[in-house]
């Protein structure tokens, strides 16, 4: 599970350079799904994923959807599908409705998926500097797990480190 979270953070930090079209200032939220294809159905999953990308284009979806594969570790073979640079408000009014998106997912991808897990990550702009190169093949990320209620303390410590730097 830790490796899956690490892989998500790697993906998130590398792709956060993409801004949200719905806001002037890019958001700092990544909305991710971890999709594990059924054994022996990777080809069908990838074909379904390509079909869904085309469907998003036909729907004139304004937000970029990124797909990455976990290449090593215990979650090898899991795909991370997500949107980056979002605000929480962007999720309330997506350019493609959740119902339509789920219906298309169920048609072209769901039969080939063993497991789907959703997660949200917050990007810390003062702490990291993601690459603006969206075609980067590999990304390095540090993930911090903060105890509930200690987020402000953590961000204060980050600010102090940033000032000292």
What does this structure look like?
Helix 2 (42-58) runs antiparallel to helix 4 (98-108). Strands 2-3-1-4 form a 4-stranded antiparallel beta sheet. The chain contains 5 helices and 4 strands. 37% of the residues lie in helices and 19% in strands. It has one domain (2-164): Alpha-Beta Plaits, CATH 3.30.70. The chain has 165 residues and is α+β, with helices and mostly antiparallel strands. Mean pLDDT is 80; it is low at 3-23.
In terms of DSSP E residues, the strand content is 15-25%
- CATH top level is Alpha Beta
Query: In one word, what is the shape?
Result: globular
Q: State the distance separating the first and last CA atoms.
A: 32 Å
How many independent structural domains?
1
Q: What would you call the quaternary organization?
A: single chain
If you consult CATH, what is the topology? Answer: Alpha-Beta Plaits
The count of DSSP E runs of length 2 or more, i.e. the number of strands, is: 4
Cα radius of gyration in angstroms: 17 Å
Provide key terms for this protein.
165 residues, alpha+beta, Alpha-Beta Plaits, 5 helices, 4 strands, disordered N terminus
Could you give a quick summary of the protein structure above?
The protein is α+β, with helices and mostly antiparallel strands.
How would the blueprint of this fold be written?
Layout: H1 2-15, E1 29-37, H2 42-58, E2 66-69, E3 79-86, H3 88-92, H4 98-108, E4 113-122, H5 151-164
Antiparallel strand pairs: 1-3, 1-4, 2-3
Helix pairs in contact: 2-4
């Amino acid at each position: 599970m830790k490796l899956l979270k690490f892989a998500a953070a790697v993906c998130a930090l590398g792709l956060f350079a993409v801004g949200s079209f719905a806001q002037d200032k890019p958001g700092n939220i990544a909305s991710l799904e971890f999709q594990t294809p059924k054994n022996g159905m990777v080809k069908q999953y990838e074909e379904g994923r390509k079909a869904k990308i085309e469907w998003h284009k036909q729907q004139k979806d304004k937000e970029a959807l990124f797909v990455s594969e976990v290449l090593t570790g215990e979650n090898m073979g899991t795909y991370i599908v997500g949107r980056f640079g979002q605000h929480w408000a962007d999720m309330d009014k997506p350019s493609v409705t959740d119902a339509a998106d789920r219906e298309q997912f169920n048609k072209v991808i769901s039969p080939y998926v063993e497991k789907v897990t959703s997660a949200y990550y917050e990007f810390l702009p003062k702490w990291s500097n993601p690459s603006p190169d969206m075609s980067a093949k590999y990304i390095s990320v540090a993930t911090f797990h903060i105890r509930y209620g200690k987020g402000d303390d953590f961000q204060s410590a980050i600010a102090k480190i940033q000032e000292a730097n």
